[in-house]
Amino acid sequence: MSAVNFNNSYASLPEVFYTKQKADPAPAPSWIKTNDALAKKLGIDVSFLNSNAGLDMLSGRAVTDGSYPLAMVYAGHQFGGWSPRLGDGRALLLGEVIGTDNIRYDIQLKGSGRTPYSRGGDGKAAVGPVIREYIVSEAMAALGVPTTRALAAVTTGEDVIRETRLPGAILTRVAQSHIRVGTFQYFYAQNDKASLKTLADYVIDRHYPKAHGTENPIQAMYNSIVTRQAKLIALWMKYGFIHGVMNTDNCQIAGETIDYGPCAYMDTFHPMKVFSSIDEQGRYAWGKQPHLAHWNLSRLGEALMPIWGKDDDTTTAEISTALDTFSDTFNENFYAAFAQKLGLPELDSQSAPFLETTFETMTSNKIDFTLFFAHLRRSTDPTYQEKLINLFETPEAAGIWLGQWDTLKAKSGISANDSQTAMDTANPIYIARNHRVEEAIQAGLQGNYEPMNALHDILQNPFTQQDGAETYEAAPEATEIVQQTFCGT
Questions:
Q1: Per residue in 312-321, pLDDT tens?
Q2: Known catalytic residue at 249
């Protein structure tokens, strides 16, 4: 029995979908971190993963039996501008495994060297972005947000040149899929109807098999992708997450969060909050994320038109109907999420305006998003009620909001126990705060991974109060605030 039981399907597609290639071997790799729990879920031998042979596999020094490394091709709209050929410019799909949950997972190296899609880049990754993605993707998983995962992170023993010389690293990323909206767009732009149909059939077989039993499997697949994206974005909003680079090549068809380059969590609330240094126009602000997801899905619908199987007018109408369901599904999940966060049974047409009032109050009082809801869930404790009140600019402002909240709860008829349970399960105490992630990165650049490990461990139980973890809960001091985040390219 092999240490990694690869069971590859994407590599069996025609080579127009990818380029076969080996990774650049890291000259002197060493471990940053491995994810033994995820390895077990994937059916990977943990002792192998942590061995020298495992290190060789995940640093490009050896190709394990059953692995057929390849770089996937795709296109995409980046900040609204069309790029006809992107692809994996610094990543290689090693292969796929069937997890203990009977789901097929990709195993990909990120930062493994140049490919035909590198477009002038060196194909490598620095330690900082690798640490960021490891911490944040695993934190998202612990929150219950669909996401790619981190199986391992290694240093390569060589430097990469960015603004300065930085230590190189490779992330091993796990995903239910690395197929993106941009993958469909690539073949649509090529006017390659046959490959477009092959890709759609593959996606249906792998991710949406129930579509086979419908009148139009392509339409059923599209409807399912729309639904998953709507639910995903509602979860991002629930936790104050800002992706930062919602290009169509970063919109994954299995409905997972992918590509954590300039991502961030809101500290002080503002609906138009932006962190990404390259998002100068605020295109991907927190409050715009639903609109941009809808836009990305419109591009997917456009790409599917040649294989929809009906005349253009009917196809356009059916795609439009599906996109309307995005708004309905998003709103349903968004309002349900914030009802939970507020300890209410629902936010209906009469109570929904209170959410806008809450957002306006948080904005005008410059309130920390996560602390507000974390303190609210514990506000029956006088200590945390005082902390909650102190988040407001004046006690009077706090009193007005708390009075409205109490009135709404009383009108709803929800029991104190049910309200508490809702808030406890919806409001994390710990998130991957930007300044703590940056602290872990700066230590990692010096070869010290203890801050990374400590932060990671805290974030595995985000809803549970942990002894001695007050600093991980706290908002940043003025000197600690992260104003901008950067892509890892």
A1: 999 999 999 9
A2: yes
pLDDT digit string, tens, across residues 191-204 = 999 999 999 999 99
With a CB cutoff of 8 Å and minimum separation 6, the contacts of 183 are 72, 73, 74, 75, 199, 253
Tell the residue number behind the tokens 């007005």, with chain if given.
400
Q: Which amino acid would we find at residue 154? A: V
Could you tell me where the DSSP H helices lie in 240-306? 289-304
Instruction: Please report the pLDDT score of residue 304 as a whole number.
Output: 99
Q: What's the DSSP call for residue 392?
A: S
Tokens 């410059």 belong to residue: 366
Q: Partners of 154 in the beta sheet?
A: 31, 170
Question: CB atoms < 10 A from the CB of 184, how many?
Answer: 27
Amino acid found at 68? Y
Question: 267: Cβ–Cβ under 8 A, 6 or more apart, which residues?
Answer: 368, 369, 370, 433, 434, 475, 476, 481
The pLDDT of residue 290 is above 90: yes
What pLDDT, in 10s, does the model give residues 327-358?
A: 999 999 999 999 999 999 999 888 899 999 99
Burial of 268 (0-12, 13-18, 19+ CB in 10 A): middle
Percent of the chain clearing pLDDT 90 (strictly above):
91
User: Residue 365 and residue 394: Cα distance in Å, rounded?
Assistant: 8
Give the start-to-end residue ranges of the domains of the chain: 10-178
Name which of 335, 321, 260, 259 is nearest 290 in CA terms: 335
pLDDT at position 261:
85
Q: Which of 298, 268, 270, 295 is nearest to 282 (CA)?
A: 270
How many Cα atoms within 13 Å fall on the side-chain side of residue 353?
3
Q: Collect all residues with Cβ–Cβ distance below 8 Å to 460 and sequence separation of at least 6.
A: 138, 142
Per the CB < 8 A criterion, the answer to whether 273 and 286 are in contact is yes
Band (pLDDT 50/70/90 cuts) for residue 488 is: low
Q: What is the rounded average pLDDT of the residues 372-386?
A: 97
Provide the pLDDT confidence category of residue 163 given band limits of 50, 70 and 90: confident
Quickly tell me which residue has 């940053």 as its tokens. Answer: 32
Catalytic residue from among 249, 259, 279, 368: 249
**409 Cβ contact partners less than 8 Å away, ≥ 6 residues apart:** 343, 344, 419
pTM above 0.85, yes or no: yes
DSSP β-bridge partners for residue 485: 276
Check: CB of residue 422 under 8 Å from CB of residue 340.
yes
Phi, psi of 433 (to 5 degrees): -60, 140
> Tokens for 270?
């503002």
User: Cα Rg for the chain, rounded, in angstroms?
Assistant: 23
Give the list of residues 6+ apart from residue 237 with CB closer than 8 angstroms, or none: 286, 289, 290, 334, 337
Taking phi first (over 0 means left), then psi (-120 to 50 degrees means alpha), and beta for anything else, what does residue 123 get? left
